[in-house]
Write a structure and sequence with these properties.
- This protein is of the alpha+beta class and about 170 residues long.
- The chain has one domain (about 10-170): Sporulation initiation phosphotransferase B (SpoOB), C-terminal domain (Heat Shock Protein 90), CATH 3.30.565.
- Helix content is about 40%, strand content about 25%.
- It contains 4 helices and 5 strands, in the order αααβαββββ.
- It has helices at about 10-30, 35-55, 60-75, 95-110; strands spanning about 80-85, 120-125, 130-140, 155-160, 165-170.
- A 5-stranded mixed β-sheet has the order 1-2-3-5-4.
- Helix 1 (about 10-30) packs antiparallel against helix 2 and helix 3 (about 60-75) packs parallel to helix 4.
- It is globular and about 55 Å long.
- The two termini are about 30 Å apart.
- About 15% of the residues are buried.
Length: about 170
């Protein structure tokens, strides 16, 4: 599904579905009288929503949309995300960064081993003068081609080691 664009209605549908799944799980924990697990799930869900809300500070709306819909578009890469973002003026072409990320993951999907479970960690950091998005995928990525060279006002760095692929997109 990676190269498919989501409509607003589709994104809202996915968001409602995810939210209802979280509520169902919390209710299940309560029904089973597992209150610590229910509380933990509530805390995890609210923290996830805070991370998503913090993306607005990045000032790159197309990138924000890509990151917000990542789990829906790239289901083979279940992810966790953490954000430390200070508002600032970004020089990067927002649409170019989002298109680059989309291209990289659409290509990466083609090399996945269906027998392997992948895990993805996304770390978004921004100061008032710079920003970076570091994405680490844990899992077999041996056939993955190197990421393309960028021509915009952003930079990339990539490393591939045994069952770990890390790349960073950054800019001013």
């Amino acid at each position: 599904m990676g190269n498919k664009k989501l409509t607003t209605a589709q994104a809202l549908k996915f968001a409602r579905h995810d939210f209802l799944n979280e509520l169902q799980l919390i209710l299940l924990y309560i029904d089973l009288e597992k209150l610590p697990e229910a509380k933990q799930k509530i805390l995890e869900t609210t923290d996830h929503m805070r991370q998503i809300a913090m993306l607005e500070r990045l000032g790159l709306p197309a990138v924000e949309t890509w990151l917000t819909t990542f789990d829906w578009l790239y289901a083979a890469f279940p992810s966790t995300m953490s954000c430390t973002i200070v508002k600032g003026n970004r020089e990067a072409d927002d649409a170019s960064v989002a298109a680059f990320l989309e291209h990289v993951f659409s290509e990466a999907e083609k090399t996945l081993d269906p027998a392997f479970e992948y895990e993805t960690k996304i770390v978004v950091q921004a100061s008032s003068t710079s920003w970076s998005i570091a994405i680490t995928v844990y899992g077999e990525m041996g056939n993955k081609n190197p990421i393309p060279v960028t021509t915009g006002k952003f930079f990339t760095k990539e490393t591939i080691s045994h069952n770990q692929w890390t790349f960073t997109v950054s800019g001013q």
